[in-house]
């Protein structure tokens, strides 16, 4: 039998924090901390640096995590060979994702999932609005959030770093702001509900309020407006990474970014038994998005 503390350690790394792991496992944060300390004491090595901002693996923790994940996957594969077709992904699977993230990073990869799971009947809903998984009968959702509702099992897919950016044409016409206060004199671009901006530069914090130069409910419209020189936007790297690489957008006020409290998750309703199609889709997302250029 695989040591339960191994699975706990993998769950902590996957969730991104002790408290998130506690929620996912339905145990107290104190118990998670106690079991992690017990594992570290048994191994004689610190695995995780605890900070108030984020969880960070030590070098020993990184090596141990890689080994533990390999062990857990090997056990899963061994069980699958015994249980056989009873656990083959099949049947309806309803998936929800934010419009831009789904179009840019889920849809182009879906062929691999469909080839691997031909018996799954996939339905994909792309929407920027909040979707209640239970009411909407959603099996798996991609969520970009700092906190997730109770009753959901969350699998961390990556970071959600956000930077200020604008096109070179806009900066040529209006000049680049040389301070955070100078943003007040510029055209800001944000979808409905995305202002005010909360920005951070190390320990410094700043809230930027105002009105979007163009009113829209679409984050994709905001990106295109920024690229075509309409104003300055606060965008996720997964959304504008290609534009930054191509030079059609450039960073503004480097160092000032959105706080690092947001992350990208795959979530599904918590249940004693998770359908094989759900497990397969979450695994597909984690594998296909691992090492993405924007996840830094």
Structure overview:
It is a single chain. With 296 residues, the protein is of the alpha/beta class. It folds into three domains: 4-85, Arc Repressor Mutant, subunit A (Orthogonal Bundle); 89-155 and 264-296, D-Maltodextrin-Binding Protein, domain 2 (3-Layer(aba) Sandwich); 162-251, Periplasmic binding protein-like II (D-Maltodextrin-Binding Protein, domain 2, 3-Layer(aba) Sandwich), CATH 3.40.190.10. Helices cover 39% and strands 21% of the residues. It is built from ten helices and 13 strands. The chain has helices at 4-15, 18-25, 29-43, 59-83, 99-106, 110-116, 168-174, 219-227, 237-246, 276-289, and strands spanning 48-49, 56-57, 91-97, 120-126, 140-145, 152-159, 162-166, 188-189, 197-201, 204-208, 232-236, 250-251, 263-269. The chain has a five-stranded mixed sheet with strand order 4-3-5-13-6. A hairpin with a 6-residue loop joins β1 (48-49) and β2 (56-57). The radius of gyration is 21 Å and the shape is globular. The model has no long low-confidence stretch (mean pLDDT 87).
| CATH class value of the largest domain | Alpha Beta
User: What is the CATH topology of the largest domain?
Assistant: D-Maltodextrin-Binding Protein, domain 2
Report the biggest beta sheet as strand number plus sense, adding barrel if it closes.
5 strands, mixed
Q: What integer value in Å does the Rg equal?
A: 21 Å
The shape is globular
Q: What class would the helix/strand composition place it in?
A: alpha/beta
Residues in helix, %: 25-40%
N- and C-termini, Cα separation? 35 Å
């Amino acid at each position: 039998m695989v040591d339960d503390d191994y699975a706990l350690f993998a769950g902590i790394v996957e969730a991104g924090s002790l408290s998130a792991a506690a929620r996912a496992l339905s145990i107290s944060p104190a118990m998670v901390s106690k079991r992690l300390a017990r594992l570290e004491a048994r191994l004689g090595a610190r695995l995780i640096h605890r900070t108030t901002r984020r969880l960070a693996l030590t070098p020993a923790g990184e090596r141990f995590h890689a080994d533990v994940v390999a062990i857990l996957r090997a056990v899963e594969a061994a069980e699958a060979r015994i249980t056989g077709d009873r656990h083959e992904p099949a049947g309806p699977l309803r998936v929800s994702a934010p419009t831009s993230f789904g179009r840019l990073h889920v849809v182009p990869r879906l062929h691999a999932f469909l080839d691997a799971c031909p018996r799954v009947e996939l339905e994909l809903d792309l929407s920027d609005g909040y979707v209640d998984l239970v009411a909407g009968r959603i099996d798996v959702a991609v969520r970009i959030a700092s906190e997730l509702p109770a009753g959901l099992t969350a699998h961390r897919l990556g970071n959600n770093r956000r930077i200020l950016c604008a096109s070179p044409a806009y900066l040529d016409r209006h000049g680049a702001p040389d301070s955070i206060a100078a943003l007040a004199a510029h055209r800001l671009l944000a979808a409905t509900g995305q202002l005010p901006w909360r920005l951070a530069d190390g320990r410094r914090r700043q809230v930027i309020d105002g009105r979007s130069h163009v009113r829209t409910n679409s984050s994709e419209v905001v990106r295109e407006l920024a690229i075509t020189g309409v104003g300055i936007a606060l965008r996720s790297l997964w959304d504008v990474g290609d534009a930054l690489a191509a030079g059609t957008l450039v960073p503004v006020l480097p160092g000032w970014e959105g706080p690092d409290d947001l992350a990208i998750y795959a979530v599904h309703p918590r249940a004693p038994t998770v359908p094989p199609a759900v497990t397969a889709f979450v695994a597909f997302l984690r594998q296909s998005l691992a090492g993405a250029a924007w996840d830094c």
